[in-house]
Amino acid sequence: MSVGDDDMAMFEALYADASPDGPDHFPVVWDKVKAMWLEPFDWSDDLARIRCPVLVTLGDDDMITIDHGAELASRVPDGQLAVLPGTSHLAPMEKPDLYNRLVLDFVTNPAVETFLPQRRRPAG
Q1: DSSP-derived secondary structure letter, 49
Q2: Is pTM beyond 0.90 here?
Q3: Pure H helices in the chain
Q4: What number is the average pLDDT over the span 62-77?
Q5: pLDDT of 123 higher than 60
Q6: In the chain, what are the domain boundaries?
Q7: What percent of the chain has pLDDT over 70?
Q8: What is the tally of helices (H) and strands (E) in the chain?
């Protein structure tokens, strides 16, 4: 992923507004983010052990592919996938009303109530 100067300024400003550590701490966080991107990890075997409903969200133009999100959601026993149209990895910022409706609906109704399930086991 490439982060341009404008993007970096936006991330720094968001961090400065929300961080209890203050804006001077952003370089420390950014170094950790870069290290995370560079380090390979595979925790996929742990997904089947999750015992609560999970909502995987991503944008339709996200750096995370829809196929990857679908695989992640399918490997969690009660996983669901929500793809937000017209958004990137920053979907919560780009379409906050839609994102919040999806998350609130999931938190309120985490049980899957699909009438014709194709890829998950039927409810009940």
Answers
A1: G
A2: no
A3: 5-18, 26-38, 66-75, 91-94, 96-108
A4: 91
A5: no
A6: 5-38, 50-108
A7: 91
A8: 5, 2
